């Protein structure tokens, strides 16, 4: 497979899928419908993502009526059983292949990280040197595999992995394939360093996110 040039990559706007199909056990209710600064978490994610990509779909399982956003297709997992975040990645790959056959990659982001970088798609794209690479975000020495550009050609291999590997670890699957990481810097604020990939898993995290919303000057409803 010939290497992709950065010029080629910049000409591509990827399809994207928001992963909102998890069980949210620690939160106790679907994260997509949580209110942050007067807006649902899902609406914040879509608003931040939409300017960066060609299209946005939403991966939801069972909460579509409550959390879907008009104008964006809602897609359920293509494999049953709530098999973890990689099931959402597989769903994104299948959706992209069916709706945007010219796209080599699909961008995925989770629904619980409302401050992710506004240049996420561009920087991941620019980092790729091979068409088959997975481009993954990194910050503060932590990998964020659910903020990544995934090659749609990996769908069959990923489905086999999901249905045969008992652990289904995202990092382990990435390490099986060509990949590149992109280090996103921490933000300096008056209240200390802030990780743009701060994610909300618990009610306490949601309260902390409200505080960061004000510190960072993010728009509220």
Automatic annotation (TrEMBL):
Keywords on record: Cytoplasm, GTP-binding, Magnesium, Metal-binding, Molybdenum cofactor biosynthesis, Nucleotide-binding, Transferase
GO terms for MF: GTP binding; metal ion binding; molybdenum cofactor guanylyltransferase activity
Keyword Ubl conjugation: no
Cellular component GO terms, alphabetical: cytoplasm
Tree of life domain: Bacteria
Entry similarity comment: Belongs to the MobA family.
Assembly information from the UniProt record: Monomer.
Pfam family, one: NTP_transf_3
Domain MobA-like NTP transferase: start-end pairs: 16-178
Needed co-factor(s): Mg(2+)
GO BP: bis(molybdopterin guanine dinucleotide)molybdenum biosynthetic process
Catalytic activity: Mo-molybdopterin + GTP + H(+) = Mo-molybdopterin guanine dinucleotide + diphosphate
EC number(s) recorded for this UniProt protein: 2.7.7.77
Domains as described in the record: The N-terminal domain determines nucleotide recognition and specific binding, while the C-terminal domain determines the specific binding to the target protein.
Binding-site positions, Mg(2+): 112
Protein residues bound to GTP: 19-21, 31, 59, 77, 112
Subcellular location(s) of the protein: Cytoplasm
Function: Transfers a GMP moiety from GTP to Mo-molybdopterin (Mo-MPT) cofactor (Moco or molybdenum cofactor) to form Mo-molybdopterin guanine dinucleotide (Mo-MGD) cofactor.
Protein name: Molybdenum cofactor guanylyltransferase
């Amino acid at each position: 497979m010939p290497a992709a040039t950065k010029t080629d990559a910049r000409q591509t706007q990827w399809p994207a899928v928001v992963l909102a199909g998890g069980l949210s056990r620690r939160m106790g209710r679907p994260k997509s419908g949580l209110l942050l600064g007067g807006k649902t978490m899902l609406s914040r994610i879509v608003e931040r993502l939409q300017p960066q990509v060609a299209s946005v779909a939403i991966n939801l399982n069972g909460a579509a009526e409550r959390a879907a956003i008009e104008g964006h297709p809602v897609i359920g997992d293509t494999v049953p059983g709530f098999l973890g975040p990689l099931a959402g990645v597989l769903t994104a790959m299948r959706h992209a292949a069916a709706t945007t056959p010219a796209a080599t990659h699909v961008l995925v982001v989770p629904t619980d990280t409302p401050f992710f970088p506004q240049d996420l798609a561009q920087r991941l794209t620019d980092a790729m040197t091979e068409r088959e690479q997975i481009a993954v975000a990194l910050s503060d020495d932590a990998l964020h595999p659910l903020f990544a550009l995934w090659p749609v050609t990996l769908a069959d291999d990923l489905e086999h992995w999901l249905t045969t590997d008992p652990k289904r670890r995202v990092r382990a699957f990435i390490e099986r394939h060509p990949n590149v990481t992109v280090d996103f810097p921490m933000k300096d604020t008056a209240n200390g360093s802030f990780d743009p990939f701060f994610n909300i898993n618990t009610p306490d995290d949601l309260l902390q996110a409200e505080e960061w919303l004000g510190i960072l000057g993010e728009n509220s409803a």
